[in-house]
Design brief:
This protein is mainly alpha-helical. The protein has a single domain (2-156), classed as Four Helix Bundle (Hemerythrin (Met), subunit A). The chain contains five helices and no strands. It is elongated.
């Protein structure tokens, strides 16, 4: 059950990563962004797509992949809090809890138009863009570890 779910989740992560990378390609010449108003329509669209796909990827990892990965690897997640899940994922060498939380705060800051100060918005966007690779790296580490466990199980059976 977990194997099948994880396979489909990793297919979904790959789609998000591809779209994130396409968005980054469009924005490549504008980074670091100095002024949101200087972005053309395609660049604004790419930035919004980047934020959306990043959010979807981070949610998929945090809400579905972490727990299913741990269950597949033999860790019982029943009645475990999300923080317990994060601690176990950190023990696996996949994430750093502080970095994960920083990414969530940054994503929330960017995804919601709560910021009033334009300079702060631009600073947050540039920091966000610089940290996108961290979430992609986490997805790839999870997938690699999943395939290692699966390969070992297939060899042992």
């Amino acid at each position: 059950m977990y194997k099948k779910r994880l396979n489909s989740y990793f297919i979904e992560t790959q789609k998000h990563i591809e779209l994130i990378e396409e968005s980054l390609d469009v924005l490549e010449k504008k980074v670091p962004i100095k002024d949101y108003g200087s972005l053309n329509q395609l660049e604004r669209f790419a930035l919004n797509a980047l934020i959306f796909r990043f959010s979807k990827l981070q949610d998929l990892i945090g809400a579905k992949i972490f727990r299913n990965y741990l269950e597949y690897s033999g860790f019982n997640t029943t009645e475990k809090s999300f923080f317990d899940i994060l601690k176990e994922i950190e023990k696996e060498g996949i994430i750093d809890i502080d970095s994960w939380n920083e990414l969530r705060v940054l994503r929330n800051k960017i995804a919601h138009d709560y910021l009033e100060d334009a300079d702060e918005v631009i600073e947050s966007i540039n920091l966000f863009i610089s940290r996108v690779e961290v979430v992609i790296s986490i997805a790839k580490k999870l997938e690699q570890k999943f395939y290692e466990i699966r390969k070992k199980r297939n060899r042992d059976s």
